[in-house]
Amino acid sequence: MIRAKSTLTMLATAVLFSVGGQAQAGATLDAVKNKGFVQCGISDGLPGFSYADAKGQYRGIDVDVCRAVAAAVFGDAEKVRFSPLTAKERFTALQSGEIDVLSRNTTWTSSRDAAMGLNFTGVTYYDGQGFLVNKELGVSSAKELDGATVCIQAGTTTELNLSDYFRSNSLKYTPITYDTSDESAKSLESGRCDVLTSDQSQLYAQRIKLAGPDNYVVLPEVISKEPLGPAVRQGDEEWFDIVRWTLFAMVNAEELGVTSENVEEIAKTTKNPDVARLLGAEGEYGKDLKLPKDWAVQIVKQVGNYGEIFERNVGSGSELKIERGLNALWNNGGLQYAPPVR
């Protein structure tokens, strides 16, 4: 794992103080600028969201969120370092100051938001829990899984969701838990369990890694709401706003037709007040966030708008081929909606 523990420990000490025994965030932006990069917690390997490609470069929606934050702060999307984390490790890493932002296909829930010292900054992907089975099992619905052995990743919301679903439908099951998503997928492939349950996006990502992906099917039931998004430590509104508006900038850019290909030209020529404010051609909205005037230009130029990062990582330009669905813009039948820059 890429952690540089001694440096991070010193930085954590500098930006944290204790209130009633709970770590609270301090001047994160200053600490990030002093060290010269954003330390971002990501998954330990999930295609489409955060994974290392054949060249060892991290790719995925969650990775692009981290790169976008770096582009906003430094004007350089490459000024980011990644800490691959398991589900069990992720919250401790953020709470302790080991990472500056957690962008790791993590569900926004009340307990995580209120009781764990975290603040979720938005939703990068609207998801829901489902089931992946081998076609040889001969089932077409989750309601046919009575008595099944189910693989689950430990430390996730899927454990409670699974228990609730089977109990409410008077079904019995035997859980087998694993620390990583790869371990649970391999267990399904080896036949140790009958079904793998997780967020549907994760099921599609794991299926393409199996030796015979066409032998497996995602069942139609979606049994939960899983809004996935980045989180920061509570207590530092300045850093919270930066991460939140980084996401909002990408969503607004897509809605306004601003892409990585045209953003520089539009920033110079636009007559649209909404576009002008977003791209820094009008007003001082970057200053409000303690960011450069062209913060949104750099995000879109170097990383892309929301639609671009979706399509290349999990959509039509990827192996996953996931349709936009709920992740389409609000004016195109989906839920993605960002407040305006004004």
From TrEMBL:
SMART domains: PBPb. Keywords: Signal, Transport. This is Extracellular solute-binding protein. Residues 1-25 form the signal peptide. Coiled coil: none annotated. Belongs to the bacterial solute-binding protein 3 family. One of its GO terms (biological process) is amino acid transport.
